[in-house]
Design brief:
The structure holds two protein chains of two kinds. Chain A is mostly beta strands. Chain A has one domain: Immunoglobulin-like (Sandwich). Helices cover 0% and strands 57% of the residues of chain A. Chain A has no helices and twelve strands. In chain A, the strands form three sheets. In chain A, strands 2, 5, 6, 10, 11 and 12 form a six-stranded mixed sheet that branches. Chain A has a four-stranded antiparallel sheet with strand order 3-9-8-7, with no helix packed on it. In chain A, strands 1-4 form a two-stranded antiparallel sheet. In chain A, strand 7 and strand 8 form a beta hairpin. The N and C termini of chain A lie far apart (41 Å). Chain B is mainly β. In chain B, strands 2, 4, 5, 6, 9, 10 and 11 form a seven-stranded mixed sheet that branches. Chain B has a four-stranded antiparallel sheet with strand order 1-3-8-7, with no helix packed on it. Chain B starts with a strand and ends with a strand. Helix content of chain B is 0%, strand content 49%. Classes of the chains: A mainly beta, B mainly beta.
Chain lengths: 113, 114
């Protein structure tokens, strides 16, 4: 069994300040973890993925995430938010023996000018 | 330009009518998926197909049907048996096989049933 909890349903930041989106997971097997972004009325775009290589994963648009097995977390960060980062973000887990993805409920990011 | 296309972008239907949502991919992926997205609930898997002429139910398959006659195409039919069909529907595809592969998503179809 696998599941994902995104700890914040909404995050608001000022442009140029850091962004932190928190994600905890549970998985019976070695997990693969993903962060996707969705802009309004659009499909999902992959930001980054962790598949048991380096625990610090760099993605597109300046985002990165750190896999912490002891804390079962995979938090997403960006040092400096841009207006274009306003979107919904999904943390996703998949177990190594099951290609099915389990999605978190999403975190909506608002960026203030 | 490789990718996944879904049509139409917006769809309106009367209650009691079946409706088919289109999904086409030119990524040469074996696996395809249909998800339903409702506000505040993330994505839920409706059906998936790992290979042509084969598909399996996901977590919320009741009231939906699919076919996979071609590798590129995976249409979803929302039947009148689906109690609450109004939602945003997303199609995805991925490489198939052992291991975990990221899924690539289409732009979605917003279905409104009144």
């Amino acid at each position: 069994a696998q599941s994902v909890t995104q700890l914040d349903s909404h995050v608001s930041v000022s442009e140029g300040t850091p962004v932190l989106l928190r994600c905890n997971y549970s998985s019976s097997y070695s997990p693969s973890l993903f962060w996707y972004v969705q802009h309004p009325n659009k499909g999902l775009q992959l930001l980054l993925k962790y598949t048991s290589a380096a625990t610090l994963v760099k993605g597109i648009n300046g985002f990165e995430a750190e896999f912490k097995k002891s804390e079962t977390s995979f938090h997403l960060t960006k040092p400096s938010a841009h207006m274009s980062d306003a979107a919904e973000y999904f943390c996703v887990v998949s177990s190594s023996n099951d290609y099915k993805l389990s999605f978190g409920a999403g975190t909506t990011v608002t960026v203030r000018a | 330009d490789g990718g996944i296309t879904q049509s139409p972008k917006y769809l309106f239907r009367k209650e009691g009518q079946n409706v088919t949502l289109s999904c086409e991919q030119n990524l040469n992926h074996d696996a395809m998926y249909w998800y339903r997205q409702d506000p505040g609930q993330g994505l839920r898997l409706i059906y998936y197909s790992q290979i042509v002429n084969d598909f399996q139910k996901g977590d919320i398959a009741e009231g939906y049907s699919v076919s996979r006659e071609k590798k590129e195409s995976f249409p979803l039919t929302v039947t009148s048996a689906q109690k609450n069909p109004t939602a945003f529907y997303l199609c995805a595809s991925s490489i198939s096989g052992t291991g975990v592969y990221e899924q690539y998503f289409g732009p979605g179809t917003r279905l409104t049933v009144t």
